[in-house]
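Problem 12. The chain below contains 99 residues. Write out its predicted structure in token notation.
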Amino acid sequence: MKVYLDDERPTPPGWIGVRWPNEAIELLASGEVTEISLDHDLGDDERGTGYSVILWLEEAVAMRDFIPPVITIHTANVSARQKMLQGVQSILRLIRNRA
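Solution.
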């Protein structure tokens, strides 16, 4: 399944749309997500951001040998995009270091 985390943009055809990080994380934990696309700013930082999902993925890969899906960042927030992409790079390094 493909998961699209965003609070404003329409969900692309063939994707499952979620609004909050906990919804995305619940689907990721199922092990059935093959691709995830993340926005950062979701309208209520107390409920989390797209970066919250990156942090969950990083911990799951490091601590539980979780196999992450393909990760795309579609946020318009330039500084958050950089932070999220650094998180993706960290996840990829963790995977490479397993081998």
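Discussion. The CA atoms of residues 54 and 88 lie 7 Å apart. Students who got a different answer should revisit the alignment rule from Section 12.3.
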